[in-house]
Amino acid sequence: MPELKDIAIVTGAASGMGEAAARILLDDGWTVLQCDLRKVAVNHDPKNSRGRTEVLTADISDPDFGRTLLAALSGRRIGALIHCAGLSPTMATQERILEVNLAATMRLVNTVRPHMAQGGCAVLFSSSGAHILGSSLDEQINQIRTPESVSSLLTLTTDSGSAYTISKRAVKLLVEREAPAFGANGARIVSLSPGVIDTPMGRKEMEQHPIMHKMVELTPLPRAAKPEEIAAVAAFLCSPTAGFITGTDILVDGGKIAVLVGAARQDNLVS
Length: 271
Hints:
The chain has 271 residues and is α/β, with parallel strands linked by helices. It has a single domain, classed as Rossmann fold (3-Layer(aba) Sandwich). The protein has helices spanning 16-27, 65-73, 94-112, 128-133, 138-142, 160-184, 200-208, 211-217, 227-237, 256-270; strands at residues 7-11, 31-36, 52-57, 78-83, 116-125, 188-194, 249-252. It has a seven-stranded parallel beta sheet with strand order 3-2-1-4-5-6-7, with helices on both faces. Strand 1, helix 1 and strand 2 form a beta-alpha-beta unit. Mean pLDDT is 91; it is low at 43-47.
């Protein structure tokens, strides 16, 4: 299992799920390297927290981010990675969404893989939207094996929303492909697919897309998730208790996909 002398990395740590994940890991006693494009506030009270904060202000989509990250590690092994940084559909163009959500994620995985601690875990964020998309494009998406080839997925997109969904489906598939390589190093890799989350990003998406309110209302738990609820699952996946979970995706969506799958089955029975 990873030891607390190993370091934990949280990307997107300035707000939302990343901030919540960093707090949980700090409370668990980790030294947490909090990475974000924006300056990260120290996320704990040194008198009350067992952990220690380090900060890396950098852009994960910068091709040199991997070298910058390794310099910040100073030779320490990675016991946990919670990769929250990403762009939602209203935040950027199709090209930028694919670059940040997928190409940068692939480069990050390539960077951390040989530096994972025995028993360590990398948690990448997919989305419940990746489940809604389904497997229809998996063959084309699985052909993307390098960050440089990610831009070819633009031919599958129609707008920033479809680029986001495809990027998150690709993250889910990336985890499946990477599990054997991580396992060879005694480490694990998992994706986590949230539904709607009550973060600044999530609220902005709901303002732009009112249909999201309806989708939330129809779920078994008719509300948006708290960031802490998602972060707690990510932290659990990085713990020894989850030591036999790898190469898979964990849905934390309030039951949204269960409802959609049930509705689809009912439609098939009726038709």
